[in-house]
């Protein structure tokens, strides 16, 4: 196996790990995102999108089902279409962008959570690789640039992920590596 094949195998492995962390631990109703920062072939930080500890989680007030956003917020105008989940009634949001606005005010992105954990431990991300389930937004891209990350590998494009060119212009190697379904069928 040559170096490129070996790197691709590791990149795929870490992205699958990030995907699993996002799917199992994100509390966001709309997008489950995780960032795994790897340095010298070992993970040094994991970040998941969500609210700070002790704050209300997104999935406690929002529900996304079949591409439609619902909310349980008591101040939300009640409409007839509703869905019940675990004993809570969620009503269809008239404004499907409502969650995005709420998220900007209350949630921390996975990349920021991962970098924040490194900063709290006085650990450097210099020359590391960030494996992210979704392409970083502009603010997360700036944080990754400031952290001196060498590479960013992501699997899914994010509609607000406008920081890719910014990272490339700053010398970060940016790799789009979509995860095909056959990866999920392999034996672990």
Automatic annotation (TrEMBL):
GO terms for molecular function: dCMP deaminase activity; zinc ion binding. Zn(2+) binds at residues 109, 137, 140. Residues 9-174 form the CMP/dCMP-type deaminase domain. GO terms for cellular component: cytoplasm. The active site is at residue 111. One of its GO terms (biological process) is pyrimidine nucleotide metabolic process. Keywords: Hydrolase, Metal-binding, Zinc. Belongs to the cytidine and deoxycytidylate deaminase family. It comes from the Bacteria. The keyword Repeat does not apply. This is Deaminase. Its cofactor is Zn(2+).
């Amino acid at each position: 196996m040559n170096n490129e094949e070996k790197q691709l195998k590791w990149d795929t492995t870490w992205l699958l790990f990030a995907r699993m962390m996002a799917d199992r631990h994100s509390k966001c109703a709309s997008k489950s995102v995780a960032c795994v920062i790897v340095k010298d072939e070992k993970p040094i930080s994991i970040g998941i999108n969500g609210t700070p500890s002790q704050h209300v989680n997104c999935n406690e007030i929002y529900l996304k089902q079949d591409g439609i956003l619902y909310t349980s917020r008591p101040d939300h105008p009640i409409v007839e279409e509703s869905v019940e989940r675990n004993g809570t009634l969620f009503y269809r949001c008239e404004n499907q962008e409502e969650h995005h606005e709420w998220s900007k005010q209350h949630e921390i992105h996975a990349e920021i959570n991962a970098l924040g954990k490194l900063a709290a431990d006085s650990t450097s991300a210099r020359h590391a690789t960030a494996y992210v389930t979704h392409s970083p937004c502009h603010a997360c891209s700036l944080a990754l640039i400031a952290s001196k990350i060498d590479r960013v590998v992501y699997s899914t494009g994010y509609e607000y992920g406008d920081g890719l060119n910014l990272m490339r212009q700053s010398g970060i190697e940016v790799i789009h590596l979509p995860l095909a379904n056959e990866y999920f069928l392999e034996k672990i």
